Amino acid sequence: MQAKSRALHEFGATFLGPALHVYAEAIESSGADHLPVCLAREGWCFHRLLKRLQRDHAIDLPRDPVYLRVSRTLLFRAMLGSETITRMALGNDFSGSVLDLMRKRFGLQLHEIFSALPIELLRFNCELPKDKDTVFEWLSPHLKALTTVVSPTRRALTAYLERSGLTDPHVRPLMLDLGYSGTIQKILTHTLKRDTSGLYFIATKPGETAVGDHQALLKGVFHEGVGWRSGCTMLDRSLLFECLLTAPHGQMVDMRQKSNGEFEYFYGREAATQRHFQDLKTVFDGAIDHVIMCRRHGVTYTRGDVQDLYEVFATKPNCIPHDVWHLFNVDDDIAGNGMINPMQMFAI
Q1: For residue 102, which of 270, 337, 334 has the smallest C-alpha distance?
Q2: Which of 341, 326, 332 is CA-nearest to residue 272?
Q3: Most buried residue, 192, 252, 262, 263, by CB count within 10 Å?
């Protein structure tokens, strides 16, 4: 193995491996009535982990895991026009014009925006969530037109969820994701019109949440009930995990079902991890190999061990090797912030 590949592999084993090991144990003990559903960009690695553990007979799962290519942007787009989901979408931080909001949070293209909303409205600036009631009032007369614009996306999403097995009445979807407030899970609970469970690295609002007539149950493996900027390093500096736990295709922003029944996926711009995905795959391989080794030889970590390890990597300069610096880059378009480099942000 070349020196760079060895460094990437070893970094995966030390930085991601222990967390994935503890997370896999939590998934395994989650219950026999669950369907493991690996969500969004983070879910790509989780799905790869679970499939490898199954192949090596190192985990006992009641059902094969499903990888669901979704994102908040895609789901907000698909459900635009629904009062419940539109209000939810306006509850997260954003600063900019209504035009930018429609593009970045809901993934609408310019011609779609101009076909449904008047130019006067698009010029308004807003700050969310402070202005969410005002923005919803502005959008309310146009919800029917917006519903029409996104109807192809919604139809494709409905068919995709059914084909993925999430509508099977005999199993309860168990959403697997990094965290934190379970927005994707809650939208899916509303869309599927059924109760769901979610198992996250961190759940900022754990427990049952009512979404219409159904319940979304959220649990956190490493932290529960913590708030941003409350001193929880694993949450406040979670961008380090977010940068690495991504998929080769990046964030999905739209989908269509073709005439032959297959699905076509549309993605946002590439971050550094998509341009260097072979390097990231080597990091994943190191992490997954470490989990296999741990389970084979009875090596265990506590949640505290993982928290302490993350504290070191996230706060001490030079603990993250230079060979992996180029992977720490992520887009925050949904909040209007563009590309973010946590290495610079956290001065590590």
Answers
A1: 334
A2: 326
A3: 252
| Position 170 in a domain | yes
Q: Which two tokens stand for residue 228?
A: 């941003």
Determine which helix (DSSP H) or strand (DSSP E) holds 84, and give its type and residue range.
helix 83-89
| E-only strand ranges, 25-116 | 34-39, 66-68, 94-97
In a domain, 251, yes or no: yes
- The strand pair at 66-68 and 34-39 is best described as parallel
* Structural domain of 329: 3-72+157-345
Stated pTM of the model? 0.91
Nearest Cα neighbor of 280 from 216, 348, 328, 336 is: 328
Q: Which residues contact 134 (CB under 8 A, 6 or more apart)?
A: 126
255 phi and psi angles, rounded to 5 deg: -150, 155
Does any domain span residue 103?
Answer: no
148 pLDDT above the threshold of 90? yes
Residue, of 1 and 326, whose pLDDT is higher: 326
Least confident among 17-21, 267-271, 281-285: 267-271
CA distance 203 to 2: 39
Distance between CA atoms of residues 158 and 153, nearest Å: 9
Please give the tally of structural domains in the chain: 1
In our burial notation (b when 16+ CB lie closer than 10 A, e otherwise), range 143-173 reads beebbebbeebbebbeebbeebebeeeebbb
Question: Which tokens hold the place of 169?
Answer: 């009445």
Q: Characterize 186-198 residue by residue with b for buried, 16 or more Cβ atoms within 10 angstroms of its Cβ, and e for exposed.
A: bbbbbbbebebbb
Spatial distance between the Cα atoms of 266 and 244, rounded to a whole number of angstroms: 21
- Lookup result for tokens 């999403």: 157
Which band of pLDDT confidence, cut at 50, 70 and 90, is reported for residue 84? very high
Average pLDDT over residues 310-330: 86
CB 150 within 8 A of CB 175: no
Maximum Cα interatomic distance, the chain, rounded to a whole number of Å: 65
